[in-house]
Design a protein that fits this description.
This protein has about 260 residues and is mainly beta. It folds into two domains: about 1-30, no CATH class; about 80-255, Porin (Beta Barrel), CATH 2.40.160. The protein is built from four helices and eight strands. The chain has an eight-stranded antiparallel barrel with strand order 1-2-3-4-5-6-7-8. The chain is rod-shaped and about 175 Å long.
Length: about 260
């Protein structure tokens, strides 16, 4: 008994204390290591709903409305226009008829309508004007002396051909022409007693005309034409039915007007 008490009073070595401590704490540490790892807290749906309504995304702007093409934009971009085109203009003319008074100078005002048919387009034109000339000597008949004459003209043309020349804004037109006129002739008879000559009558011509037209980026256009005509022969007018003419004109494309090359 005394020996047991002496052993209890004797201090325990430090190494023994560490060994006993490891034995007593080992299972607890292992138990702590085997505990499942809880995932990190994430906000739940209920938390999100309780925090307030979600922020709405900014509205997306609608695309701009597409405007339908105007009649002007539809007219003449590809050569097959979907609407009519009106033109007004005038031109200065010169002809070899009658031959004894050449050149016969004058002017014609015209209105034309272009249609989306034919070879690219076709045009119908009607015009009216006048021309006059003077002859100081007689090349027609020695019986006549100096003469002056005047034509009052009604002109119609049908241009069945209208072809563009590249992107130059130039176009070539081929036309059929029919024209009528009232002529007034004033002169003197020199083959006998001095006599004043006054005659009037009707003339009718038909033929072909070729035109070159330049359409500016604006509504103005310019053109030149050359004609070959054949018509009636009236007493005191001329004894040659065939004649040639040229002209230079300008005008306006009224509606619709397209700024792109035809």
């Amino acid at each position: 008994m005394r020996l047991f008490l002496l052993l209890l009073r004797r201090p325990v070595p430090r190494s023994m204390t560490v060994f006993l401590s490891s034995l007593s704490l080992g299972p607890i540490a292992l138990a702590q290591d085997k505990r499942p790892v809880e995932p990190a807290d994430t906000p739940s749906t209920s938390d999100a709903s309780s925090s307030g309504p979600p922020t709405a995304a900014p509205p997306v702007a609608p695309p701009p409305p597409v405007e339908p093409p105007s009649p002007r934009a539809e007219a003449g971009r590809d050569g097959n226009t979907s609407s009519l085109q009106w033109r007004v203009g005038g031109r200065v003319i010169a002809s070899t008829h009658p031959t004894w008074g050449a050149p016969n100078l004058g002017g014609i005002g015209a209105v034309s309508l272009e249609l989306p048919w034919g070879f690219r387009k076709m045009m119908f034109e009607i015009g009216a004007g006048t021309s006059s000339g003077h002859s100081s000597t007689s090349n027609y008949d020695a019986y006549f002396g100096p003469r002056t004459f005047t034509y009052f003209i009604l002109d119609t043309q049908a241009c069945l051909l209208d072809l563009p020349i590249g992107n130059t804004r130039l176009s070539a037109l081929g036309c059929l022409r029919v024209a009528g006129a009232i002529f007034d002739l004033q002169g003197y008879v020199t083959g006998g007693p001095p006599t004043v000559l006054a005659e009037n009558g009707l003339a009718l011509w038909t033929g072909a005309s070729a035109r070159i037209r330049w359409q500016t980026p604006f509504q103005f256009f310019f053109e030149a034409n050359a004609d070959a005509m054949y018509g009636t022969v009236s007493e005191g007018e001329d004894n040659k039915p065939g004649w040639f003419g040229i002209g230079f004109g300008a005008g306006l494309l009224l509606y619709p007007f397209d700024e792109t090359p035809p």
